[in-house]
C-alpha cells in the first residue's frame, strides 16, 4: 500500500484526496506542516505528497510553488480541483450569544490557516471584525485547538469533517465569499502512481530566459501561440539568484508526448532558454 503525505487530519487536503484517490490502495500519513509533507515525500518516507497549489479567491500559493521549485525535486504526478466550504466552528456561551445583531460578538480570537482571511473576507468583516486572527499550521489544527480550549471566545474556521472529528459545533456553514470557491491540489512524488483515466492531461514547465536576448518572452509565447497550444497559467517568480531575474511557471493543456508541444519546447531551448519539466500528468475536475 502506497503512503501519501498530506496536511491532516480533517483538512481539505485529506477530503480532496479521499474524493479522488480513496483509501483502498493508499495509506494517508498526516502532518501538521506543509514543509513536513514535502520533506517526507522527498526522503521516501512517503511515496507521494498532496500539495494545495492554487485557490479561486486567493490565487497561487506562492510558498508551495517555491518549495516545489527550489527545495525538492518531486515531479507532479496528478492534479485535481476540489470545492472548499469554510465553516465557523466553536462554542456558544451559556445562554447564547446575547447579541441579536451579531450572534458571533462573543468571539475574540480566530484560529486558522493563513489562506482563510482572503477566502472569508466578507463574513469576517461583518461578524468577526473585533476578533484577533491567530495563524496555525492548518484549518484542522485550528479546530483541534479550539476543541481543547473549549472557550466560547476562541473559534476556528475550517472543514465540517474536522468539526465532526474533534466533536465541536459548527456555528455557521459555508462562510466563504463565493460558493464556487475551489482549490487545486497537486500529487507529487518520485514514483509513478496507478491512477484512473482522466479526460485531460496537463504539462507544467519552468522557463528561465537568457539575460542577453531582447524579446525572449515574446518568442517563448509565440512558440505556443502559432501552434495553438493553450497555456492555462503563466506566472513569474524570482529565481532567488539575482534581483530582477525571474523564471516563468507555465501550465499547458496537453501532453509532452504530442509532437506540437515537444517541438515548441525545442524551439524555446534553441533561443537559449532553460526549460525544466515539472511534470506531465492527468488532470481531474470535481465533476469527474
From TrEMBL:
<feature type="domain" description="Prephenate dehydratase">
    <location>
        <begin position="3"/>
        <end position="190"/>
    </location>
</feature>
<feature type="domain" description="ACT">
    <location>
        <begin position="205"/>
        <end position="282"/>
    </location>
</feature>
<keyword id="KW-0057">Aromatic amino acid biosynthesis</keyword>
<dbReference type="InterPro" id="IPR001086">
    <property type="entry name" value="Preph_deHydtase"/>
</dbReference>
<keyword id="KW-0584">Phenylalanine biosynthesis</keyword>
<keyword id="KW-0028">Amino-acid biosynthesis</keyword>
<dbReference type="InterPro" id="IPR018528">
    <property type="entry name" value="Preph_deHydtase_CS"/>
</dbReference>
<dbReference type="InterPro" id="IPR045865">
    <property type="entry name" value="ACT-like_dom_sf"/>
</dbReference>
<comment type="pathway">
    <text>Amino-acid biosynthesis; L-phenylalanine biosynthesis; phenylpyruvate from prephenate: step 1/1.</text>
</comment>
<protein>
    <recommendedName>
        <fullName>Prephenate dehydratase</fullName>
        <ecNumber>4.2.1.51</ecNumber>
    </recommendedName>
</protein>
<dbReference type="Pfam" id="PF00800">
    <property type="entry name" value="PDT"/>
</dbReference>
<dbReference type="Pfam" id="PF01842">
    <property type="entry name" value="ACT"/>
</dbReference>
<keyword id="KW-0456">Lyase</keyword>
<dbReference type="InterPro" id="IPR002912">
    <property type="entry name" value="ACT_dom"/>
</dbReference>
<dbReference type="InterPro" id="IPR008242">
    <property type="entry name" value="Chor_mutase/pphenate_deHydtase"/>
</dbReference>
<dbReference type="GO" id="GO:0004664">
    <property type="term" value="F:prephenate dehydratase activity"/>
</dbReference>
